[in-house]
Amino acid sequence: MLKKNDIVEVEIVDLTHEGAGVAKVDGLVFFVENALPSEKILMRVLKVNKKIGFGKVEKYLVQSPHRNQDLDLAYLRSGIADLGHLSYPEQLKFKTKQVKDSLYKIAGIADVEVAETLGMEHPVKYRNKAQVPVRRVNGVLETGFFRKNSHNLMPLEDFFIQDPVIDQVVVALRDLLRRFDLKPYDEKEQSGLIRNLVVRRGHYSGQIMVVLVATRPKVFRVDQLIEQVIKQFPEIVSVMQNINDQNTNAIFGKEWRTLYGQDYITDQMLGNDFQIAGPAFYQVNTEMAEKLYQTAIDFAELKKDDVVIDAYSGIGTIGLSVAKHVKEVYGVELIPEAVENSKKNAQLNNISNAHYVCDTAENAMKNWLKDGIQPTVILVDPPRKGLTESFIKASAQTGADRIAYISCNVATMARDIKLYQELGYELKKVQPVDLFPQTHHVETVALLSKLDVDKHISVEIELDEMNLTSAESKATYAQIKEYVWNKFELKVSTLYIAQIKKKCGIELREHYNKSKKDKQIIPQCTPEKEEAIMDALRHFKMI
């Protein structure tokens, strides 16, 4: 049995979704930082549990041909670039595989093509926003990044994936904080003044916003600090102060003050101007965000008479980008400042058919339906936790033809797609987009389409009065598909499952909008697939 500090020769066989190497020894799975598939290493055991362990590279015996030899290990150790040791073409392949694996393992989807990940021509120095902690290290005020899984600051001046001008502003601010003897925050003692520096820079405009995150309102000699930094960087149009006096990992507190200039910067995306406030969400990679949103627009095949709901609308970036193509856009966002930005951005671009409210997405959806607003397209761009079940059900109830789902977390996206499929939608297209080169994160655009009632036996669920029979509640369509694929390696459609369920006397709800066509041609399930589906129904005790 392996124990701590043992050294053993292993081969790396895979990567985790976060970019750690995977090795298997004595029935245990080990996770190893800075190790790539096909590499043979001497591994030092760091920790061993019942089934898994953690190790580190003691020596490389055989290195991967795809290894990036030039990476500063600080970027790996801080998590800034946790895939930076892998060549960029291989990073893109890794991300495509992540999307495919999640869709199959979580949603049971194997029959929808996942396109190759769209990458950047120059996949470094792209971030238009930095959030940098300020701490004391060896008695000196430093800026940098926390070591992975810790709050120990690693001093850094070049962040590798950030706009170089932002890096320069951070270093200048660090030096001024030292010069004016402003005390950095101490987490253990909960003392000190300056917690974080946040810097935004417009990709096209070049405008810069600086945010000083402090523990209290009064910052000694802050006017002199601002005067000095503006001398060095005249592109600074906004200096804000955020007050966060809570013992929390959250960057921002609730209180904001304008110290210099305006409370926003302006930048462009897909030909529109956007005002971006301090707390507002704005994609950190403008170049690839434009490709991401354009993909969503293309997927949705927008028409002039479309009514679009833009859920999690932020400052209106995607909603205002589609407004010129459609009849109306209705956006919802929970952050009040972002909603105000959305409204101003609509005015700024002379867009009169976009309407924004501050609310939860599911509440807004219900209110719009009550007001007779019938969407044909829903655009969703949720945070990493994905959509709530209540939102998915509310959005499915609208009967929208198409849902374009923009995801920053493939696992929650797959979970959400699985539920949408149970509610009468079908996954049509998937396109990963690399918004975060050098990291394990991947953005994905997925198109869901309401099942065509002329070609499918559909199931319409009344969400408020759900009354499932015992048979219907046993297994979802996605679970049946997964079972059939795993056991028989056959791909079966929702239509075929519905046909066999009907044949077995399992009652199907009638679709509220039944086809009026007299001569609709519906493809019939093959005998081979019928037997496989029957086996699944028996397995789930539905027959």
Automatic annotation (TrEMBL):
It comes from Streptococcus pneumoniae. GO terms for biological process: rRNA base methylation. Keywords: Methyltransferase, S-adenosyl-L-methionine, Transferase. It is an enzyme of class 2 (transferase). It comes from the Bacteria. SUPFAM superfamilies: Nucleic acid-binding proteins (SSF50249), S-adenosyl-L-methionine-dependent methyltransferases (SSF53335). This is 23S rRNA (Uracil-5-)-methyltransferase RumA. The keyword Transport does not apply. Residues 1-59 form the TRAM domain. Belongs to the class I-like SAM-binding methyltransferase superfamily. RNA M5U methyltransferase family. The active site is at C408. The lineage of its organism: Bacteria, Bacillati, Bacillota, Bacilli, Lactobacillales. Its EC number is 2.1.1.-, 2.1.1.189. GO terms for molecular function: rRNA (uridine-C5-)-methyltransferase activity. NCBIfam families: rumA (TIGR00479). S-adenosyl-L-methionine binds at Q283, Y312, E333, D381. PROSITE patterns: SAM_MT_RNA_M5U, TRAM, TRMA_1, TRMA_2. PANTHER family: RNA M5U METHYLTRANSFERASE, TRNA (URACIL(54)-C(5))-METHYLTRANSFERASE.
